[in-house]
């Protein structure tokens, strides 16, 4: 059941200089707090986080499926979609948008025997790395991206997500 979108407080990280906007377009599914999402995104960006803005939209499966079909040609709901942004001001650049479906994340975490929060960490980092220019279309690029994800997740105390898959 979709609800009217509501905007959460905008949080600014003094440590990394990343602004994260969180908006929920569904009430279904557990969603980590703004501070946690911002921490994971800033970790993925490293020094490139300073002066950046990231929008996170939390959606239900129907909206995720619709967006995935429209932009990727895949007719199913997905865990995270990344949409690169453009410069909005000389000192602040919109990194882009992440669209996350908590129901898909929850289902995947259960199926893979992972903690749901650890899977959230992984998918936020994964999505932000896409916004930073990483991809996994070619084997060498996939290995590079997976190594980066694994290193970052290790810093958060999360086991290699590709070993348990």
Keywords:
165 residues; Collagenase (Catalytic Domain); 6-stranded mixed β-sheet; globular; disordered N terminus
Give an overview in words:
The protein has 165 residues and is of the alpha/beta class. The chain has a single domain, classed as Collagenase (Catalytic Domain), CATH 3.40.390.30. It is built from five helices and six strands; from the N terminus they run βββαβαββααα. Strands 1, 2, 3, 4, 5 and 6 form a six-stranded mixed beta sheet that branches. Strand 3, helix 1 and strand 4 form a beta-alpha-beta unit. Helix 1 packs across helix 4 and helix 3 packs across helix 4. The longest helix is centred in the C-terminal third of the chain and has 17 residues. It is globular. It starts with a strand and ends in a 10-residue tail after the last helix.
Lay out the secondary structure.
Layout: E1 2-7, E2 11-12, E3 18-26, H1 34-45, E4 52-58, H2 61-72, E5 80-84, E6 93-100, H3 102-112, H4 116-131, H5 139-155
Helix pairs in contact: 1-4, 3-4, 4-5
Short description:
Helices cover 41% and strands 22% of the residues.
Rounded to the nearest angstrom, the radius of gyration is 15 Å
Average pLDDT number: 87
The CATH superfamily bears the name: Metalloproteases ("zincins"), catalytic domain
Annotation, overall tally of beta strands:
6
Strand fraction: 15-25%
SS class? alpha/beta
The CATH architecture term is 3-Layer(aba) Sandwich
CATH first level: which class?
Alpha Beta
Order of helix and strand elements from N to C terminus: EEEHEHEEHHH
The CATH topology corresponds to Collagenase (Catalytic Domain)
N-C termini distance: 30 Å
The poorly predicted ranges are 1-15
Categorize the overall geometry.
globular
Largest sheet: 6 strands, mixed
Report helical residue fraction: 40-55%
The count of domains is: 1
Number of helices: 5
